[in-house]
Amino acid sequence: MRALVLTLFLGAALAAGFRITGEAAYQARAPLGAFGGVNPTLKGEVAYDPDTGALQGRVCLDLAAWDSKEPLRDRHTREMFQVDRYPQACLEPRSLDQAKGLLLGTLELHGVRKEVAWPVRYTLEGGRLRFQAEFDLLLGDYGLKAPSFMGMRVQEKVRVRVQGEGVAR
User: Fold this and answer.
1) pTM of the predicted model, to two decimals?
2) 47 class by beta-carbon count within 10 Å (0-12 exposed, 13-18 middle, 19+ buried)
3) pLDDT for the residue numbered 98
4) Tell me, what DSSP letter sits at residue 10?
5) Is 1 buried (19+), middle (13-18) or exposed (0-12) by CB count in 10 A?
6) In Å, how far are 59, 119, 120, 168 from 52, measured between CA atoms?
7) pLDDT averaged over consecutive 10-residue blocks of the chain (169 residues)?
8) CATH code of the domain in which 122 resides
9) Is residue 7 situated within a structural domain?
10) Domain that holds residue 113
């Protein structure tokens, strides 16, 4: 999900700007077990000021593109997100706290904007920034009602993993 996403713009890189691409994946639980899905549409651009640690830009995920290999589940996911009204989840990064390994920013999901602090790991190799983040997202924090099927509701807490790369622009 997201949005997610997006821990990506990790400031330790010396280049001023990056074109971001990647994917988000989720792991959810329901009474009959766990399931997950992948979304390969993460993209955007960010700029980093190494003197201040400031980040700016926007990275978004197309919420209609989740694929769990179960068409009915994917339809329920699109309905939960109301993709006709809220087609994207977008992160606006603000800074990177290198000491704590946290990306700080604002996530907009389902019309709700919330400040986030996500743990992130990253490397810079040959002008490419590679990143990965993993965190829990509470659906209710964004006004989302967990889908249910045959009376069994998905749990409120969903595990999200975001990974990708930034190419210096």
Assistant:
1) 0.85
2) middle
3) 81
4) -
5) buried
6) 21, 19, 19, 19
7) 33 63 95 91 88 86 97 93 98 89 95 96 80 96 86 89 93
8) 2.40.128.110
9) no
10) 17-168
